[in-house]
Design a protein that fits this description.
By secondary structure, this protein is an alpha/beta fold. The protein is 34% helix and 27% strand.
Length: 376
C-alpha cells in the first residue's frame, strides 16, 4: 500500500509541469494582445509628434487640444459672439481625406487640423404688440376720449438666444387713441384753482387758511399715499368745502406704464380717498399730465373724468413768488384751470404767491370755482 502511494507522489509533479507551462503561455499571449490597448502610440499632428493612447479616436484628438486648430464660436444672427468654442468642432484630415470623428487613429498617422466653423444661433418667430399711439386735438384742460384706439401686431423673427431682430413685419397697424381737449365754451369769466401732490404737513393747511380768508374754493388732487399719511389734513380739505380729485397713489408716470400699474395707481388712490375722507373723486389728473391708452380706459372704468391744466406757472421750480403770480396773470383766460402745488417739496413760494394771484384775478373780474362748477 505504501509503495503505491510513493509512486503516485512521484508521478504527479511530473504531470503538473506541462499544465503550468501551458497556462503561463496563455497568460503571456493574452498580455501581449492586451498591452497595445493600454499603451501609447506615436502620431504626427500638425507637424508635431504626439504620444497618444492606443485606440484614440479623431474626435478625442480634436477636443483634447492636441491640434493647432480651434473650434468655432456660437454667434448671434448679427455676428456678435455669444459663446466661445461652442460652434462646429475642429475637423481632422489624414492622407487628404476627412476623418470621421469616430475613426480610430493608428501609430505613424500624419494628421492635419482645420478650424471649426462658427455656428449661428437658431431663430424663432414671435409676435409683439405695437403700442397705441396717442393723438390730441383741440385745446384746454378737459381730456375726453373720442376714439379708444387699438393695439397693433408686429411679427418678428429673432435670434433665440440674443433676441436680435432678423425681420420685422407689421401685420396689423395700431389704431390711435384720440383725445379731445376742450375748455368751457359758455364764456363765463371763471377760473379753477387746483393744487397737486398733497396733503402736505405745514403747507396744505396754510393754503386752506388763505382760501378761507379769501372765500375761494379750489380742487385738491391728492395722492393716496399722502392721504394715508395725513388723513386729518385730507378731511379738513373736504370739510371746508373744497373738491378732492385723484392724482394716483404714488405719483408714478402712467402714460407708458403697464395696464396693471395704471389700474393699481388709480384704484388704490380712489379707494383710499373714499375710505379716509368719505368722498368719491370724480376727477383724475395723471402725474405730469402723462395720458396714455391705459390711463384713459381705466379712468372711464371707474367713472373718473381726466383733467390736466391750461395755466402752468411751474411753481415747483420758481425761486420767488413774483414770477409765479406774473405767469398766472399773463396766461389766464376765462375758463382756465390753474395748476399749483401744495405738496411734492417746499412750496413756500407758492403759498406766498397765492394771495397775489387771487387778488389780481378778482381785480380782473374773475370768479373762482371748482372743476365740477367749471364743467357743469
Amino acid at each position: 500500500m505504501s509503495n503505491s502511494s510513493d509512486k503516485a507522489s512521484r508521478i504527479l509533479p511530473v504531470l503538473s509541469w506541462p499544465v503550468v507551462l501551458l497556462g503561463a503561455l496563455v497568460l503571456a499571449s493574452a498580455a501581449a494582445v492586451a498591452l497595445p490597448a493600454f499603451g501609447s502610440i506615436g502620431i504626427v499632428v500638425d507637424g508635431r509628434v504626439r504620444q497618444v493612447p492606443a485606440g484614440i479616436t479623431a474626435a478625442a484628438i480634436a477636443t483634447d487640444a492636441l491640434c493647432e486648430a480651434s473650434p468655432g464660436d456660437l454667434v448671434s444672427v448679427n455676428g456678435a459672439l455669444l459663446r466661445a468654442g461652442q460652434g462646429e468642432l475642429v475637423a481632422l484630415v489624414r492622407d487628404g481625406a476627412w476623418l470621421d470623428p469616430d475613426a480610430p487613429v493608428f501609430a505613424g498617422d500624419r494628421i492635419g487640423s482645420v478650424d471649426g466653423a462658427n455656428t449661428t444661433e437658431t431663430v424663432v418667430t414671435t409676435s409683439s404688440p405695437i403700442p397705441i399711439p396717442v393723438e390730441f386735438t383741440g385745446t384746454g384742460a378737459l381730456c375726453e376720449v373720442k376714439q379708444p384706439g387699438a393695439v397693433g401686431i408686429r411679427r418678428l423673427v429673432v435670434g433665440e438666444i440674443s433676441g436680435n431682430v432678423v425681420t420685422s413685419t407689421v401685420e396689423q397697424e395700431p389704431l390711435p387713441l384720440i383725445i379731445q381737449r376742450s375748455s368751457p365754451s359758455n364764456g363765463r369769466k371763471v377760473v379753477a384753482l387746483t393744487f397737486d401732490d398733497g396733503p402736505w404737513k405745514g403747507q396744505t393747511g396754510k393754503i386752506l387758511d388763505i382760501l378761507k380768508a379769501e372765500e375761494v374754493k379750489a380742487t385738491f388732487f391728492m395722492l393716496g399715499s399722502r392721504v394715508r399719511k395725513y388723513p386729518s389734513i385730507a378731511r379738513r380739505v373736504a370739510k371746508e368745502g373744497h373738491e378732492i380729485g385723484n392724482h394716483s397713489d404714488t405719483h408714478k408716470l402712467l402714460g407708458r406704464a403697464s395696464e396693471q400699474m395704471v389700474r393699481n395707481e388709480i384704484r388704490r388712490a380712489q379707494r383710499t380717498i373714499r375710505e379716509v375722507v368719505d368722498v368719491t373723486p370724480k376727477w383724475f389728473r395723471p402725474p405730469a399730465g402723462s395720458v396714455g391708452p391705459y390711463v384713459a380706459s381705466e379712468a372711464r372704468k371707474v367713472k373718473l373724468r381726466v383733467i390736466t391744466w391750461s395755466v402752468d406757472p411751474q411753481d415747483w421750480r420758481a425761486s420767488k413768488p413774483g414770477p409765479i403770480a406774473r405767469s398766472v396773470r399773463k396766461t389766464v383766460k376765462p375758463g382756465a384751470v390753474i395748476l399749483l402745488h401744495d405738496g411734492g417739496g417746499d412750496r413756500e413760494d407758492t403759498i406766498r404767491a397765492l394771495p397775489w394771484i387771487i387778488h389780481n384775478l378778482k381785480k380782473q373780474g374773475y370768479t373762482f370755482v371748482t372743476l365740477d362748477e367749471l364743467y357743469d
